[in-house]
Amino acid sequence: MTMTTDRAPGPDSTAPGAADPGRPADPGDPGGPTTSTASPERDERHAWSMGSRWHVAFSVAMAAMVALALVTGPEEWRWLTAALMCAVVAVYLFGARPLISPEKGFLDTTRALVLMALFLLPTVPAVILNPVLVFALIAIAPVCFMTVGSVLAVSTVGVILVVPTLWGGLVGEQDWPSVGVHLLVNGAVLGYALWFGTWVERIVVQSAERYQLIEALRRSREEVALLSEEAGALAEREHLAREMHDTLAQGFTSIITLTQAVESELDSDPVTARRHLALMRETAAENLAETRAMVAARQSFRLDDEGLDSSVRRIGERLGRELGISVDAEVTGVPEDLPNDLQICLLRTAQEALANVRKHAGARNARVVLAYTDVGVRLTVADDGLGFDPARPAHGNGLANMRHRAASVGGLLDMESSPGGGTTVRLFIPHDDADE
């Protein structure tokens, strides 16, 4: 005999740890997927998981059947029929009750037939001896549907209804016309039970599948939130690293350079040494201000105080005084009130380009031009230093940081250099309404 149900195809429910598509995976089941903590406002129980309430209902119904067996039916059979009802309770407690839980699937055919036979062995004789006990189906039928599926459950209920009726006709307790009427009525009841039970079973399967989909969606949302959080933390670390490279690292480099100069000037040129000491103090104060700004507001402190134009002039003039070279810083065009992120990008690019002049160029002259035009803002930093071969890979982070900043605000960064021919860095940030 083959048991057929309307369950969705899936792994064998008898396999250890196998997930049953007709039942949702239980969060505590090692075979099921790991699920997040369910929202307390939602009831995540499976349709077959009725908790202790069903066990109490079954016990009360069967206790009523035992009492009914003791007060109805032939007197000589009352204790026997009561014992048979107690046997039904024992089959439920030790055979069926452990299977009525969310993580259990329907039994395979062999085990299902054994369980149904265990229910039939005491129930059919009891109903034959006392037909009133057919009301035990109130408790037995739901258990059958919850453990073996609608097809075998209807078959089991049919045996309990049909066999006592046929027995009554065979022993002459009922005439055959009455037996025929009972069989027709019971057949209609069983047909309806098969149709309705199969329909409910499909609803339960679809509900279980929807439960699994909802759990998968919840896990996916948690994973996306975690990935977004990690991506945000990584972006923040990268942002902080660029800020530290473009401000603190450059400031400390300048202080080290000035310290080395002062060491050689203390005896030979005290005036110049004092000037360099003043520059060191100024640089250290700016680094401290930048640090406080990054911690407190994550933006440049000087921009709020001086504005972009003054900041560009200031860093150009300071480099000239530090290196003793000519640095011409100028602003052309009609200044605009740029968004803070654009101002930060322009200022940091100018700082990085001038830092490269300090560290690598060996230049005698440098020029910084911030030009406001009709189509956008252009920053140019040029020097007449040693230059380099742009085709060779860069070892530092400066150029990468400048390119990243330019891309983040929709700007274009261009660099021209050649050995012995100096270096020119150009950053162009177009207006939002500018033609491409």
Provide a descriptive summary of the structure in words.
- The chain is an alpha+beta fold.
- It is built from 11 helices and 5 strands.
- Helix 2 packs antiparallel against helix 3 and helix 6 (176-265) packs across helix 10 (340-361).
- The protein is rod-shaped and about 135 Å long.
- Mean pLDDT is 77; it is low at 1-45.
Strand tally is 5
Mean pLDDT: 77
**Strand line-up of the largest beta sheet:** 1-2-3-5-4
Percentage of β-strand residues: 5-15%
Summarize the main sheet: 5 strands, mixed
Shape: rod-shaped
Structural class: alpha+beta
Oligomeric state as shown: single chain
Characteristic terms for this protein:
five-stranded mixed beta sheet; disordered N terminus; 436 residues; alpha+beta; 11 helices
Q: Quick recap of the structure?
A:
61% of the residues lie in helices and 8% in strands.
Topology:
Layout: H1 52-71, H2 78-96, H3 109-129, H4 137-148, H5 150-170, H6 176-265, H7 270-296, H8 301-306, H9 308-323, E1 326-332, H10 340-361, E2 365-372, E3 376-383, H11 398-408, E4 412-417, E5 423-430
Parallel strand pairs: 1-2
Antiparallel strand pairs: 2-3, 3-5, 4-5
Helix pairs in contact: 1-2, 2-3, 3-4, 3-5, 4-5, 5-6, 6-7, 6-10, 9-10, 10-11
